[in-house]
Prior knowledge:
The protein is of the alpha+beta class. The protein is elongated and about 35 Å long. It contains three helices and three strands. Strand 2 and strand 3 form a beta hairpin. 35% of the residues lie in helices and 24% in strands.
Amino acid sequence: MANAFDPYREALVVETNTIWPDEFAQLPPAEKARIDAALHAAPQEAAELDYTRLHTGFCRDITVTEADVERVKA
Length: 74
């Protein structure tokens, strides 16, 4: 289950990670990079957001969904 956007944890994000399900394997690397940057630029809009605790802060994990891709492409 994904977490909700959390401003406190966001302030402590030191790493980001994007999880691409197999359904997006056909996307070109340049398109994936563009979508990845857009999702992490506005994490509060991501459909599936999670935070992983690290020794130095948090890692923001975003699992890409079809809704995210459509929103970013628009």
